[in-house]
C-alpha cells in the first residue's frame, strides 16, 4: 500500500520545483525530503524525478503520479472541510464559476438541484470569462465551471467536461418590435435589427451559418459577450434576441417578448467542467444526476 506521507513529500517537492525550495516551504531538512522520495521510488519501482541541469524535473511517470497526488490531496481538503462544516452545522460551500455567456436563467435551472440536497449547501457564484474561470478551477478556488462549451483542447489546464443539457435557439422580440416586422418568420429577419452573442459564445458560429444558409441578411446592431447585457438591450426593444428557449419563453410569459421562431438545428449545449473525471462534490453530482434524468433547460 502506498505511503501517503511519502506521497505528500513528493507532491510538495514537485509543486515547489525542487528539494531545496520545498524544504524552505515545509520546514523539513532537504535530506529528509530526498530520503522520503527515494524510499517512495524504491517501493513503487519507478523514477519520479530526473536530473535537469542543476535541478530536478518530473519523469513521465512522475507527471502521472503528480496528477493523482493533486486529486488525492484536494479530495482530502474537501473531505476535511465537509466534515468540519457538518460537525459545526455550517453549510457546505459550493463554489461555482459561471461563464458570462451562459444566460442567468439557464444557470439557475442547472444549479437548482444543488439547492435541494438534504445537507445545507451555501452556493458561491463567480461570473467571468471562461479561461479566467478555468484558471480558478485549476487552483481549486472553484468546484465547477458552467460553460456553453467543453474544455478547450489547447488549454494548459487539467479538467473534464460533463455534458449537462442543451437547448434549441429561438428568436424573440418585444411586442412593439415584432409588430413592425414584415412577412413571416424566418423572412422577417431580413433587414431586421439583430443582437448577437460575442465571439466567445459557442453558439455564435452555428447561428451565423444558419442565417447564411437560409439566405437571411439581418441588420446586426449589437454584439455582446455578456448574455445579461444582451437581454437588457432586447427588453429595451433594441433588436431581436436569439436565445435558448427556456430564457425566451420565460420572457414571453412575462409579456416582455414575442417568440418569432426557431433556428432549426442550432442548439446551445451546457457543460459542467471539473478537475475530476469522477464527480465527487455532492452538489455537482446532484446537477449531473438531474441532467441525466432528462431535466433540460429547454
From TrEMBL:
GO biological process: regulation of DNA-templated transcription initiation
Keyword Transcription regulation: yes
InterPro entries associated with the record: LysR_HTH_N, LysR_subst-bd, WH-like_DNA-bd_sf, WH_DNA-bd_sf
Keywords: Activator, DNA-binding, Transcription, Transcription regulation
Gene Ontology molecular function terms on file: DNA binding; DNA-binding transcription factor activity
Domain called HTH lysR-type: residue spans: 2-59
One matching Pfam family: HTH_1
Family membership noted in the UniProt record: Belongs to the LysR transcriptional regulatory family.
PANTHER family assigned: TRANSCRIPTIONAL ACTIVATOR PROTEIN NHAR, TRANSCRIPTIONAL REGULATORY PROTEIN NAC-RELATED
Protein name as annotated: LysR family transcriptional regulator
UniProt source species: Thauera linaloolentis (strain DSM 12138 / JCM 21573 / CCUG 41526 / CIP 105981 / IAM 15112 / NBRC 102519 / 47Lol)
